Every structure is written in structure tokens, then in C-alpha cells.
Queue: 3 jobs
Job 1
Amino acid sequence: MGARGSAPQLGQMYVADLETCDSDEFYKVDGEGREIYKQRVWLAGHRNLETKKTEWFTSIDDFMKSVLSRGNNVNTEYAIHNLKFDGSFIIPWLFENGYSVTHNKPDSKQFSVLIDERNNWYSITIQVTKKRRVTFWDSAKLFPIQLEYLHEIYGTPTKKIHEDDDFYNQKRPEGHIPTEQELEYFFNDLIVLEETLNEHIKLEGLRFKKTQASQAFYAFEQSFPAWRLRFPALDDETDALIRPAYWGGIAYVNPAYAGKDMYNVEVYDINSSYPHKLADYKMPYGHPIAKKGQGVQPDMSKFWVAEALISFELKPDKLPCIAAKGVVEARPITEDFWLSDSEGVVRLVFSCIDYYSIRESYDFEIISWEWCIEWPWKVHKELKKYIYKNNEEKVMYKKKASEEVDPQLKREYLAHSHRAKINNNAFYGKFGEDVIKRGKTPYFENGDIVYRVDRLDILSMHKRKYLPVAIATTAWGRRQLVQMANMLGKEFIYCDTDSVHITKAGARLVQAMHKEGKIKIDKTELGAWSLDGRFDRARFLRPKCYYEEKYGEYPEVTLAGLPSDKHSGARSKKRSCITWENFHIGLKLPPEVTGKLASCRTPTGTKLVPVGFEITEKLLHFLK
């Protein structure tokens, strides 16, 4: 951000970081009997994106005074990779130094925060004077990857330095002067983020968006300036009525195979499932063309979302595809996200696309249509052009980068390839963005910081997207998955959103389906199925919890909530604490082997403490 009303300038953009440790001040004994001390910043600093000048400090006080110093009256912004952690030190300092929090645009000596109800931190905005504003924002929302792997996005030269656990856990006393090793580590972290941001700015300009989805949707807006005329915002009532029909991807284990040892398993993925559906399938548009009341069946030639009283029971060897969140009345008592049996009559909100999937998977009866809203729909050439152009650029620039020897050109090609891929994969979700957003606010009470969900923001009509497109996109994706799983029948083992894991006999079925023209198999074509892997043995315990192994190689373990091994790769599935012998429901892993850290809040900032992990039948629980 530059001076008020002007375009942002590179010289007013920084990256920042804080290094923290225990202080000498005792705070409490936690529930596990551990002594928790208040936290302190022992090293902090920032680096300018234009001058590349780095400044460092040995306290949060000196750091904040540097950031907030008047200088010339310009607005500045600081990117922090994981603002949720570093921000927990900034907010107490602001309260202690005379700043107050506000839900509105801050006045002098006020600050505001953007923290959603799920505790995702986006920004802290501080109004220093009437003419000077400082913003901290979370670069991890724009680059959702650990700092260790940030250089891979644009092929930038500087890589994170790795130190041992003693380095990270060491308590530095008050007045500690950082060693040469500590400063080198710290400066390196700043350079990694600075280089990535500068490459991003070369590609997207100084007015880049601060989240990955917003940046991707902005690229779509540039390609289709009249999109709002095609996809007009919904009013509050319509959005609230149809939102229960917005379901996500299906993750499901065939109960016949849950927990059993499986051999010769193959995995097939859909190439770019959601972009493909947006490009090649009919999508709703415009204002509703009909709103029908009780007892009136929808027009099956239109896109519709309806509420109906129904009953259902899953057919043998079929994939469940009715989401519990779609049941708005008389929901069965279950922790399952995807339902097998209505256990009586329920009230369901669903789309026309899911209606056909449901009929294939369930014995399904409509008792009464309650209401229905209909839209026109068609394949949109603007969506198709945008998505296929991005896909072509992704492939072309990736190929160029692999053949290029010049480091600068290689970085440029990687940047273009990465951006094209993200633009395709991330922009659709903005169509389903909530129009009512609840957020948290920090308060200073009795010497401590407390956070309350007390902010309600309703998007203006101009900022809203178009929920029917998001509903249709995910429904079409599920439909392709459901059709494949249902054709596989007993040979289907597991699925997750856009992939199926199948038996050896299932692999032969897939090839037969391809020959018969029922499905398409191709390595690169959008929407086609492609072979993603073959494994000698596997075990599937429940959704997001499975083990697959090729003999002689490290097993690939998907286990939501348990981090992969350190330094094993951005998308690594290597989890050394999991073995074929111990991978079962009920496994309890102690903190010293999981590598998992949990946040423990103190009045001066967050402390990270090691925690254990347990594989439970339904939900994941952490052992403190």
C-alpha cells in the first residue's frame, strides 16, 4: 500500500517474522501437568521487497516500534507466513501499548482483525495516525504451503535452512544477542518469502490479491469482465434456501473392506475434475426463472434446487451420495457424513444433478415436493475458454521449464505454469463463498487475551459470487465418481473426491469400461480417468485414513491430523511412525514420535507443545 489513495508501491511492502521461546515468567500448569511459561520474542525483523534491506530486533517492543514509526506518512504492509502464530504476539503488544480493537474501519490508535470463526487468521490492520496505516497479512493464505517448500512454487534460489530440535526448543535468556548461526537462519527465512513474493508480483502486479482463491477468481474476472451479468448475486433468502444443497467431495470406505488387508490395489484419478465440469458441463446462470411451491414437481429440463420429504436406503454395492448436511429436518443420528439410510422420512435439500445420482445409488422415494427454484443452464463458452487456456499454458510452460537451462527463464516458466494450474483449481470455490461471515475479535481481560465470535459480516451484493455454479460443479464431480464406483460394485474399495481405489479385478473392469466407451482413460485429458498408482498391499480404516505400500518403498500413509515426516516433501505421505503392523483403529502414538504440535495460548503469545495422536473409529483425537 502506498500513500492514501495511491497505487501500492513495492517500497512499502515487507516480509516479517518472529522467533519465540519461553520466558522466565510462569503462566500455568496445563491439563497434562506440564508447566507452561509465558512466551517472549527473542528475535524479530523485516525485509523490504524493493531495497532488500533487512532489520532485526531482539524484542517484540523494538520490532513493533520500528514497524509503527511514523517516518513519512505512507501505508505499509507486512507479509507473515503463519499470521495465526506471530499475530498472537502482536495483539497483546497492541493492547498493552494503548491500542483498542474495533469491528469497523480503525481510527487513530485502533486496530481491526480478520479472523474467521474457524480461527483462520487473515490480517491485522493498525491505524497508527490519521495518515498512516500498517497491515500484517498472512502469506500462507496466498501460498498454502510450508515455508520450507515455498521456493518450489516459482523456482526461487534460496531454500530454508534446517536446524536440529535443540535449536528450535532452546530457551534464550533476556538480553540474548543472536549468534551468527541464528541470524543466518532468520535472515534466510525472510529471503525465502521475499523472493517468492517478488516473483509473484512480477506475474500478478502490485495489486495482487491476498488469498489463493481470490487471486484465481480475479484472473477469471479479467478473462470474463461481464461475468456478473451472466451470474448475478442471489438475495439473502434464496442463498439461505439453497445453501444446504452445496455438498463437497465424497470420501468413503466400502464397509466390506474397512480394516482388512488388501493386495494388488490400483488407484485412478479424474484429471482436473472440477475445472473439467465447469468447462464442459451445463452450468446454471441468470436469475431464477421459476419458484414452485408444495406438491409441484421440478422441470427436469432445468437446473433446480429443491426441498422434499423423502425416504431412502442404500442399494447393495452402491456408493452413498446423500450428504448429512443436506438433511434439514429429522436427520438420522450418525457421525457419518454420507448417509446410507434415512431411518424414516427426512427433509432434504438437493440439486437436480444429485437427484440422478441418488436414484442410481438408493431405493429412493419422494413423499412430497416442498419447494423448488429453477434456473436456465448451458455450457458456457467463456468458462470453457478460460479453463482450457489455463490447462494448455500449464502444460506448455512446465515443458519449457524442464528444457530450459537459464535459471531466470526457468523460474519464469515455472511461475506461469504454477499460476495457470492454481487459476484453474482454485477459482471455482469462490462461487460458493458464504455471504454471511462470522468472525472472532480479541479482547484484553484480566491480564489475558480472549477471543469471541462476535462479528457478523454480510457481503454486499457487489461482492457476492453465484452459489448455483458451485452447487452444480461439485454435484457433477460427485456424479462422475458415483457412476464409476457403482459400475465397479464389489471391486470398489475407497474413494476421495476425484479418485477411486480398486481391486485387481476392478482394474480389469476399468479397462473393459474404457474399451466399451463407458469411461475414458487418458493421462492428460481433462475429465478423463488416469492411473495414479499400483500398490502391493493396502489397508483402509475409514475416510482420510489409509495405508498403501509398494514393496521395497516407503509406504504412503494418508492420515488426516497426523503430519508427514519432517523434510519429506510438500505433499509427502511418508509417516514413519505408522507401520503395517500398527496401522489399526485404536492405535495411540505418544508425543515424542508424532511430530505433531498443538497451540497453547499464553497472555503474551502462543506456545507450541508436542501432542500424541490416536486413530479412532470415527473422529481423530489428539493425546495431549
Job 2
Amino acid sequence: MAVHIPLDKVAGRDALAALARAGGITIGAVNANVFQDDDYMLGSVCNPDQKVRKKALSHLLEFVDIMDATGSRDLKPRFVDGTSYIVGGGSRNELLCQLSVDDCGLPVVAGPAEATALGNVLVQARALGAAPGTLDGMRALLRTCLGLRRYAPSDSTRRWEEAASRLG
């Protein structure tokens, strides 16, 4: 089982390891979510503010300690330091996607609209031997089947200026 820190964070590393052992669960990967803190709005390890970069590094080292305590061998850091991803129903809304890009100044990849359902089907197909057995293989299969749309920041700030003028 993979844990998502800080989402699955408990009182301490030893408590997490004990909880897993009590449930007969082996921790596979520690997914380090280095994007949920408000300080990471402009990125984590690539943030322009040195204090924020140090904070992100400290978090990543904490995740390594969690790996040691739980016996996990895999660390999967999750960053949002370059591209935003919009999945679910919102990915169908071109205006939402473009405004997100223009507001954040980061490229957006939109889709799939039914990400959760597709993930479920893919895991079941893998269990039956009908889909690739690796994560990279499953991602490659999805890329061949899905129409992901990419959005880039526009040069125009007209929409934002119009909105700001309406607010006074």
C-alpha cells in the first residue's frame, strides 16, 4: 500500500509503522506531496524564496525518515513546479483551463474528464493481465487512448484587466 503524506500522516513515523503492521499492511511507496502547503504556490524546491526551498527540502527529508520507519523502499515526490493538471469535469471547460493558465502562468494539461473511472478500469484490466504491468506502461496505454489537451499562457491579460475593472 502507498501512503500519501501529508494526507495519511498520523501522530508520528513510528505510529504509522505500527498502524500498518497492526493491519497486516506493508507500506510500498511514500508519496511525498510537496505542493499542498500555501507556501508552495510558486513551487517547492524551485521556489524563488530560499526559505520555501529549505522548507521543501526539509519535508522531503522527513519523507525519507518515514520510509526508514515503515520499511518502504520507494519515495515518489509529487511536485507542481512546472505544469498544472486539470482532470475531471472541469477539464472539459476550455475557458476554465485557459484562465487557469493565464492566471498561474504555468502550462496546463487538461483531461481526462473521467480520470477516476479510467483508473479503476485500468487497475482491473491489469489484474486480469489485459493491461501493462508497470505504471509507465499503463500511462503509455492511456496516452494512446485519451485526448489530453494542452494549454499555454497567452500573451493577453485583457480578460483579467476587464474583470478587475468590473470589481472597481
Job 3
Amino acid sequence: MFVSRLYKLFTLSTVIDKANLYLKICNAISKEKALHKFPEFAKEIELFISQDPSSSKKYLEWQLNILKSQPALAPEIADVTNLFHKYHPFLENKELNSYQPQDFTELSEKLQTIKEEREAKKQKRKTYNIDPAKVACGHKIVYTSPGENPKYEVLLITNKDASMHFGKDSRWCIRRGDKSFFEDYDANNVVFFFIFNKHLPKTDKFAQIALSYQRDAQNNILELQCWDAFDTQMVAADVEQELDDNEIHSIINLTESIAQAQPKSLLAKIDSGEVPEEELYKLYLKENNPETKTHLLGALMLQSKNPDLLRKLYNETEEHYYLLSNKYLPLDLVEDGLGDEDYNARQVALENPNITMELLLRNMDKPEIKSVISNRTDAPLPVIYELAKERKYWTNLINNPITPSEILVLISNDGHFSASDGVQSAVLEHPNLTLELAYKFIDRGNALKRIEDLAGKNYTLFVGDLKNYRLPIYKAEKMLMSNTLDDVEKHYLRKYIASKSANETILSELLALKDSDFITKEDKSNLRLAMCHNKYLPLTILEALAYDKDINPGNIALNPNITTDIIKILLDREDFSPSTFATLVANQKLSPDALRLVANQWLQYNDDDFKGILHMIAIHPNTPADVLKKLIQSNMSDPAKEYAQNRIIK
């Protein structure tokens, strides 16, 4: 019953939620793409998918990359993936894709340790035995229907033992002794009533109804929730309508007035800070219920300003790490927490507001402490440089304002990492950004403004004219030849000309530019890509691009004016792929001769996985009849063959 309302005190879950962790969504790869990319791992792919804990195959590509590097066999990789899925909230780094093959063994060991720690804690939990005396004092009959055979009996429930005893025939969560659900509600000032319908069999969902009244700090009713015996939540009006019973309406009115008058429980007083520190400690020493004791300890952790008491609690309690974030805890105990073998203890210690850089540096052997240091603005620069050697701290470093520009350059030069929009945005907003580094992201939306700030020059109007095609191409070509432009203006103007010009001389000069002529190493390839999309591009330039091994054949295939001769050049390239066929056939201007060449080449593959390309050829408006006849004899689907046959007849 009831989703647990976690008490406001400091709990393990809030520790984990507050920690500085990397959060990034993994991109799933389909089975078909996986088989195409890793055909040698067909059996392993089946294994990974059959044991996928996410049901979305989001871990598949990472698993295959690990398998390819051979740090472990497929069954072990599958086991580690399952452990990661289950226990990743307890890891300092929650991004699976950031773990490289060389990190696999360490990740496996970490997850195994976390598993053992969690299982050990589960085994420590004792079965909660109901105390008859507590049942007797934990309930009160507040209403009984009139007559010799009363229909309803209503109980006010004030403790866990009574909730377990009287709720045993329901599915409510507060009947469970091994969980703290009742204590969590109780601490949040919730009042419970159980309604028993004695005229119904116990198996009926309305044989028992629970009412929970959520109250504010002044005991005013905020909300009423109703639950049938099967733990289905309802509003009061639905209960009255379902039972069609005026007596229920009267019972709800009665329980509401009782709930408002009911004094706060001890846990509710503790939760609202109404119990003095001295009394809290006395209660803590006397309490035997582990869940209540946890609440008391949490309250002491929040309220106590007495270093001596905190030291005493720290030394006496098994769960002493709850105290590690208290700013009045002596620093030697905080440092003790930083060196604790328990990961969760270290995380709580890192929340302490008084933690010094000196303490962190003395315990820098722990990864989560390195992560905190990488976020701190008082971290020594030599340490920042050292942390930059480990990729897992880069996200923190690019968001740390003290990170030197050299480290920003190092991180930005990692193409895979810097491809993220978040990373690029963080680098561009960094106070130590240099003009040269800003150039690297020049085509990103907010880069131009930063470049203007750093260069002290306004480029907005000039770039706006190019993006909105307000500058005639002949003027752009003349401007480029004037040699009066700076590097930023050349960057934008070259790209504009490459995408619009038909001037073979100027385009040839652009092709002849060296890497040193560009402000970023990506500029050269981006310029060629712009040419591939240029519908005015001279065929001599397109042919030169087709021979360029640095340009993907698929980009050449995008040009609407591609010829049969250029397609032959592409077909001879080793990097020509099935996707390039699809790009070619999607070109509605492709000539009959070109379609004949593509079809003849594709029919040699006879690959069932790519029948769609044959279908595309069949429906292309320029496909000649002799090609359609060949397609009919191929392994196309019957509807596609019928379509091709009808085209021949017409």
C-alpha cells in the first residue's frame, strides 16, 4: 500500500541524489545495425539481447565495443551489464559509455563490491515481531455501526504493530514489518483509519478500506486518500459511489474531525524539529525499533550542534555515516569518513560544508573525491592538470571556471567527447576560452557571439547576409578574391561560395587549400561537404571530390547532378557501402543509365537485408524497362514485383 513518503531527515537516498554524478542517456542500437556493424558477433548479440536488463538494447553497442577489445568473454560482459543496470545508482560515474575496455575489470570489481555490500545489509535486517501490547495501545475503535449485527467498525491506527496486525489481510504497504513505510508516513504527520465491513467476505476488495489523512505542521488536513484491500487508490467520492452507502459519508466526516484533533506522533514531532536535542538523545538510547532509531539518529544529525555528542554518536553507532554531513562534526571524523571503505559513507562526508581542500587532497586516492576536487574552484592547478589525464573528470573540468585554456583545448580535441552539445556549450561559455579554441566550434549557434567578444569585432550582419542569401554569389566571389577578409569572414564566405558557386576556377582554388589555410581542422572537410550539396557544382569538381578518399561516398551521392562516370568512380572505392546505394537511388534526377548501373551492381549483392533498395529502383520515375524486367526476376517482394510489372505494361 501507498508509495513511501520519504521522511525529510537526511537519508541514504538523498545522499545519493545530491552527489555530483555524471548523467547521460545512452543511445540504443538496433539488432539489425548491430549485426551489420559487428557481423562476427552474431551469437554474442543474441546472448546480449536475451539477457538485456533494460529491454531497450541501450547497452548493446557498449557491450559489443568491449567484446571487440577482448577484455572479457560475452557471458561475463552480460553479467557486468546486469550488475551495472541494478547497482549504477551507487556508482560515482553512472555513464556506462564512459567506461573504456581498459576500465572493464575495475568496473566489474566495483559492481561486485557494491552487490556484496547491499546483500550484506539485507541479511542484517531482522524479522519484525508484532508486540501484542503495542497492538493493544496502537489502535482505538472510533466507530461501530448501530444494531445487533454492526456493518462497519472503524479503527484509528497509531503504531506499526497495530497497522501490521489489522492490515494483515490487505495488500497495503504499511502492513509490512521489513520496510519503513509506516514510519515514513507517521513522520510526515499522516493519520490512518481502517474501515472494516463485516458484512463482506475477507476476499472482497471493500472488506477493508484504509483512509490516510495528510496533515500540515498545525495538523490541518491537506489531503485524504482512500485505498481498498487490494491497494487500489480512490478518492472519497468514488468510495461513497461504489458502496452506495450514506454511512460511509458519515464515517469519513467523523474520521476527518478525529484526524484533525489527533496529537502529533513522536516521529512527526521529531520530523518537524519540536523535540529538543537532549530529549532526542535520551529517546535514541532507549529506542529498540530500528526504523524509529534511524529517524532519531537522523534528527540528531540535523539538529545537534554539540561536537562532543556528535563524536559520541559517531563512535557508538553502526550507521555513523549519517552524521558525516553535519557541519558541527569534528573535522577529524569527517576525514575518517572520507577514508571509509563504504562508498556511501564517503559520499555523505563529501556533503559536509566544512570540508577543506587539504582534507580532500589527503584522500585523493578515491575516485569520487577526485570528482569533487575537479569541481572545486580552490583546487591547486597542478592537481587540475593531473585530473585532466583521466577522461571521467572532463565533464567537471569544463564546468570549473579555474580550468586552464590548455586543458579546454585538450578536451575539445577529443572528437568523441566534444561532439556533445553540452560539452561544446560549456567550453564556449568558459571564462578561460581563447579565440583560437572558439574557432573550433565556429559553426555552433552561440559561438559567433563569443568570437565577437574575444575578437572585438561584429560579424553578425555579415554572417546574416550569407545565411539568408542576401549576398549575390558574384559579389561573394569578388570579395573572396580581394584578400581583405580576416579568418572568420573567410570561413563563412568560403562555405557560402562552396555551396552556391558554379565558378570552376574559384572552386578549384578552394579545393587546393591546405590545412594551414583554415582556422579549424574540420573546415577543410566541411568545405568539401558544402560542395557535395551544391547543385551548380561543375562536374569536374564533383569528379575530383569523388576521388578524394577523405570524403564519404554517400556525400558525393547527394549531389543531384551526379553522372554515371562519377558513380563508377564511387563503386570502385573500398568504402562504398549499401547506404550509398540508397542515397543514389533517392536522387529523383538520376538518369536511366545511372539507374541501370546501380541496379546491375546491386543485383550482384542479392542481399535479403537490403531489399528496400530494389524497391526504390522499381518505383524511381527514370528506371528503364529493361531494368524493371531484371528486378521482377530478383528477390523483391511480390507487391514490388507487381508494381514493376504494371510499369512495364504502361
